[in-house]
Amino acid sequence: xxxxxxxxxxxxxxxxxxxxxxxxxxxxxxxxxxxxxxxxxxxxxxxxxxxxxxxxxxxxxxxxxxxxxxxxxxxxxxxxxxxxxxxxxxxxxxxxxxxxxxxxxxxxxxxxxxxxxxxxxxxxxxxxxxxxxxxxxxxxxxxxxxxxxxxxxxxxxxxxxxxxxxxxxxxxxxxxxxxxxxxxxxxxxxxxxxxxxxxxxxxxxxxxxxxxxxxxxxxxxxxxxxxxxxxxxxxxxxxxxxxxxxxxxxxxxxxxxxxxxxxxxxxxxxxxxxxxxxxxxxxxxxxxxxxxxxxxxxxxxxxxxxxxxxxxxx
Length: 314
Known about the structure:
Layout: H1 7-14, H2 33-44, E1 49-54, E2 57-61, E3 67-70, E4 76-79, H3 87-95, E5 102-106, H4 112-115, H5 118-123, E6 127-131, H6 132-138, E7 142-144, E8 149-151, E9 162-164, E10 167-172, E11 175-181, E12 191-195, E13 200-208, H7 223-236, E14 242-247, E15 251-252, H8 253-275, H9 280-285, H10 293-296, H11 303-313
Parallel strand pairs: 4-5, 5-6, 6-9, 13-14
Antiparallel strand pairs: 1-2, 2-3, 3-4, 7-8, 10-11, 11-12, 12-13, 14-15
């Protein structure tokens, strides 16, 4: 077969929820309903690690994708909602920061590990903002071919009620925020959020810090889009900007540049093999990621699986 993935090993990695989220990406998706239950059970047991980034802006790390919370008189603005069972931990961590009222929840994209908590956050008083395609994809059943995943449509309370197509600008709690959509990259629903005064940018899953990224080809994702989105982000940040990846530790411009350079290098290597007429299996056998594996090959996706994703999305 084109992709060999040890599913038992994949599940061990996916369900190894830890507060720091610094070694491997957390569960992107559950493969079956019982495994989804395991993922949610893991999230229920995972505390939230809170890291101060600015006076009123904090990084939240636990199960699922990395999150952020901005507090202040305009109400709490929160980015991504992890798994539904993580919400009690999120509420506890928020209560430890402030008594501000819930206000806005922003989804960086539609994937389950970033949106499963939407319904509970909405019930707690947050209104949900996202790209138009995020609402569209959450409104319908979805699947992820690579992992054999099928997910039902989200309930009405989990859907974004404010959407945009290209860009949205928010002035909130003393800061100016840009919400910018990129062309299909990780998915076709991706946005990133730039806090100008705090000098922080949340990349969503446009960055997996420390490992090869998952590119959701079934949702429009492609390697060239990832590279292009990264180049755009690099024009907006400085050496002092803190960048929050979708998965992995907090980073900076230099770290994100290294990630984008890796994507470009792998893309070029695979493109040469594909242009020469090699099949996907033949390209994988040539090990086009070999020079990058020591730094990037120890996450959820093996080098061979990532090579296949790059090949198919060129």
